[in-house]
Amino acid sequence: MNEKRLGSKILAKVIAELREALGDRATTADTVRNDHAKDVCHHAPCAPDAVVFPLTSAEVSGVVEICARHVCPIVPYGTGTGVEGGVVAVRGGVSLDLSRMNRILRVSIADMDATVEAGVTRNQLNEHLGATDTGLLFAVDPGADASLGGMAATCASGSSAVRYGTMRDNVLGLTVVLPDGRIVHTGSRARKSSSGYDLTRLLVGSEGTLGVITDVTLRLVRQPEAVASAVCSFPDIDAAVETVIDVMSHGIPMARIELLDEIQVGAVNRYSGLDYKELPTLFFEFHGTESSVAENTARVGVIVRKRGGSEFAWATETGERDRLWQARYDAYYASLALRPGALGYVTDVCVPISALADCIRETRKELEKTALPAPLFGHVGDGNFHVVFAIDPEDPSELEEVRKLDQHIVSLALARGGTASGEHGIGLGKQDALLREHGAAADVMRAIKKSFDPQGIMNPGKIFTPEDNSA
Asked: Which residues is 232 bridged to in the sheet?
């Protein structure tokens, strides 16, 4: 993981120039470097040689120009909440922490959009929208309070994507610093365009390998008039998943549909102090007018009963809903708590909704082969599900076992017309899966990478192997 790091003389020049440009906002302190050595992934940490904290796009450009002159790796850093090793500095270099670029630059109520700096988090934006009585909401919700620049870089989605889409659907434009230091603006505030290549959607999901996102223009939505959440359990996971397929095929507009298998429900009960039946469970959320929410809950209730589901447990007050969904957001940490001291190995795949039941069924058969805790949960309304393996970080055999299981789960998804990652990205962990999924198209992706970043300094070793990112 530490191959091809900068020589000490070149590194000293880079650090001296960064300190001249940014003062004490360029640091080599071990505590800061170690804080930027990894995200919440299972991959081994690897600290950058320096960490910088720019305040403007111009300062980011200056940092990138310094690094480009010395062929020094750059690793953009948001909040460190990713799970595929996207911020691990496998070749050292400079971690470019955007957290201090946290200004909300503009909100338009009439156009329902906003422009924010990359370090603004989704909660920060929504709190601002609420405090200023805009009646608006930024709807993409990956669970963690991630930075919006990081969410754009990874094409984040989450539980609300079934209704509101992913970051790719909600980013109108970007300001990006390219690997040579140029500042470019992509997209516009117009709701459609047929002008040129769609660089915005190319950069969304590029995981910091093509440039550094410094601000984001986002689509907003109106706060729903009525919101209701409900939970129900099922005798088996097939019944739960078939319920999801029925709901979606009937065209019932859902804000969220989340699945927790019985292992995950038990973990959440213990971690979050809840008392749900330890059975496969669906979490629903409905948005709309009072009348539409009532109508849609009734329609879903008919389907649930037909599939043998329990009566709904309702949450309509804000505090009740927040507690319910916080339990869902705690699923990752609840999974780790099944095995104190464990490290989380997370995988996610996404399949067409018609293939969901079969893919989950076959995945569960594979999971029965391991003695490791392996809860399954996911945003099943759009065919996306996750497995969290709680592994012993000191046991290489466990890591090898779950890698094989991960590869098999990916194969199950690809065989059904799905994708190797619905939302977590490729990072360090799924590079082989990328090649299996895209075949010859991966060569086109490599060519795009080299066109943007001929020196291979932008987040090297991510998405493609180090050889493909070599300088």
From this structure: 282
